[in-house]
Amino acid sequence: MSAAHEPRIPVLPTLMTAGNILCGFFAILQIFDGRHLDNHLHYYYAILLILLACVFDALDGRVARMGGTESPFGRELDSLADIVSFGVAPALLVHDIVLKEIDTPKGLGWLISCVYLVCGAMRLARFNCLAAADVKCSTKGFRGCPIPAAAGVISSLTLLIIWLDSNDKEIGNWKYALAGLMALLSYLMVSGLEYPSFKAVNWRTKRSFHWVLISIFVVAFTVMNWQWMPAVIFVSYLMYGLVRPWVSRKWRQEIEIEAEPLEIDADLETLALNGEEDSPSRAPDNAAQI
C-alpha cells in the first residue's frame, strides 16, 4: 500500500479514544485484582474507570466534529475502544460481583455475560455499517441502546450494590435483578428502538435560565451523592428510550436539546437580497451560504 492511501490520523480525537481504551484496560486489571485480593476497593476503581471511559467516549466525537476531522479511521478505532471499555470490562465486573453466584442452571452467569458482550459487538458493527452507508443516518439518534449507556447502567448499579453492601444494608436477592437487566440491555442494544445522541450539544448550545440552573443543581447533587446518582441518571436514559415513542415532539426537542435553526440577522438578510437584485449571477453563491 502506498503512502498516499495511508489514513490521516487526527491527533486530539485519537488521544480521547486512546484514553477510552486505557480506562477499559486498567478497569479490567482492577477487576482481576479485586477477584484475587477480595477487596471491594478495586471494584470501585474499576467502576470509576469505566465511567471515565464514558467521558472520553463522549469527548472524542465532539472534538472531531468541532475540528471537522471525522473519519472512518476514528469511527473504527472508537468501536474497538468501546468493545474493551463497555463490553469486556462491564461483563467481567458484573460476573465477579453477581453472576458467578448464579449456578442454577450451571453456567448461566457466564452465558449472560457472553450474550451481553456479543450483542455489544454486533451493535457496534451495525452502527459502523449504517454510518458507512449513510453518514447522516446517526446524526440525531442511535438505533438501539448505545453500548456506553448500557455499560453506564451496569457499572452505576454495581456501584450502588457495593455501596449498600459495604454499609450493611440488606438487599437480599435484589442484586440478582442485575442479571435480568443485563439480559434486557443485550436485547436493547440490537433492537430498533431510537435513543437520543445529544450530538447537538456543543459550546454554542443555548438554553433558558431554568435549564442552566437545573443542570448545575444536577451536577452538584451527583458529585455529593456519587454512590447512587449515576445509577439514577443512566437508568433514566435507559427508560427514556423505552417511552420515547409516546413522548410528544415538543418535549423531545426540549429533552434531547435538538439543534435550533440558524438565526439570520435581518440587516444581513436585507443586504443579501439587495445583492441578488443587483447581481443575479451571484444568486447561487448566496443560496449556498444560507
Briefly say what this structure is.
With 290 residues, the protein is mainly alpha-helical.
Please describe what this structure looks like.
With 290 residues, this protein is mainly alpha-helical. It has 2 domains: 3-256, Four Helix Bundle (Hemerythrin (Met), subunit A) (Up-down Bundle), CATH 1.20.120; 264-290, no CATH class. 69% of the residues lie in helices and 2% in strands. It contains 11 helices and 2 strands; from the N terminus they run ααααβααβααααα. The protein has helices spanning 11-37, 40-67, 72-97, 108-133, 147-166, 177-190, 209-224, 229-243, 249-256, 266-278, 283-289, and strands at residues 141-143, 194-196. The protein has a two-stranded antiparallel ribbon with strand order 1-2. Helix 1 runs parallel beside helix 3 (72-97), helix 2 runs antiparallel to helix 5 (147-166) and helix 4 runs parallel beside helix 6. The longest helix is centred in the first third of the chain and has 28 residues, at 40-67. It is globular and about 50 Å long. Residues 260-273 and 275-290 have low confidence and may be disordered.
